[in-house]
Amino acid sequence: MANESRPCPCDIGDRLDYGGRGQEVQVGHIKAYVCKPPAGTDKAVIVIHDIFGWQLPNTRYMADMLAANGYIAICPDFFVGQEAWKPSNDWASFDDWLKTRNAGKIDKEVDVTLKYLSEQCGAKKIGVIGFCWGGAAVQHLMLKNPHLMTGVSLYGVIRFFEDRSSLLHPTFFIFAEKDDYIPLEQVTLLEQKLKQNCKVDYEVKIYPGQTHGFVHRKRQDINPQDKPYIEEGRKDMINWLNKYL
């Protein structure tokens, strides 16, 4: 069962000491981190951060990985200047903190990001990935945004949008077998609903022995037993984007 005394689906894991190869830019009313590939491209991926915000080095590392694979990667501040969650915060205050950061209320930020990618970067094919809180946001966008071509939701919190499964675009769902915050029965239920209602390509994959956040918040060098799954999750994510963008 999900741990009710700690309602947040995250601990910060192994924080990377990583500076990033991209740059911070102003995109409409928000700031964003952008990293571009060495060669020009019209393909871009919006990266939606977890509760630790757009400046978390681990998330920037993932954006840079996308750029190294040929995509313009952009990670906007979806908290719009509000403070990200800090590991030192009191978990008892998490629900109140979350009320002003709704993963289903990011459309305005996505719109300005799409405009920036199209007008400033020449992007024509745009997908989205997201982690945890951002994974739930990906599901929201796949249910309603016509301008995105595909999405990858990494351990997205199912309970945020569990009653909705009529996806508009091909979506890949990555889950961890030993996720304390997303019980496997929720994943099974999501699969059943997708099977009944979904008219587009989707895949739900559970990675054995893994815990919440494994793809972006675990360091391969200090988790040798997890390394194959971390690498597999990242490769699967890139392959899905390559297929649909």
Automatic annotation (TrEMBL):
<dbReference type="Pfam" id="PF01738">
    <property type="entry name" value="DLH"/>
</dbReference>
<keyword id="KW-0963">Cytoplasm</keyword>
<protein>
    <recommendedName>
        <fullName>Carboxymethylenebutenolidase homolog</fullName>
    </recommendedName>
</protein>
<dbReference type="InterPro" id="IPR002925">
    <property type="entry name" value="Dienelactn_hydro"/>
</dbReference>
<dbReference type="InterPro" id="IPR029058">
    <property type="entry name" value="AB_hydrolase_fold"/>
</dbReference>
<dbReference type="GO" id="GO:0005829">
    <property type="term" value="C:cytosol"/>
</dbReference>
<comment type="similarity">
    <text>Belongs to the dienelactone hydrolase family.</text>
</comment>
<dbReference type="GO" id="GO:0016787">
    <property type="term" value="F:hydrolase activity"/>
</dbReference>
<feature type="domain" description="Dienelactone hydrolase">
    <location>
        <begin position="30"/>
        <end position="245"/>
    </location>
</feature>
<dbReference type="InterPro" id="IPR042946">
    <property type="entry name" value="CMBL"/>
</dbReference>
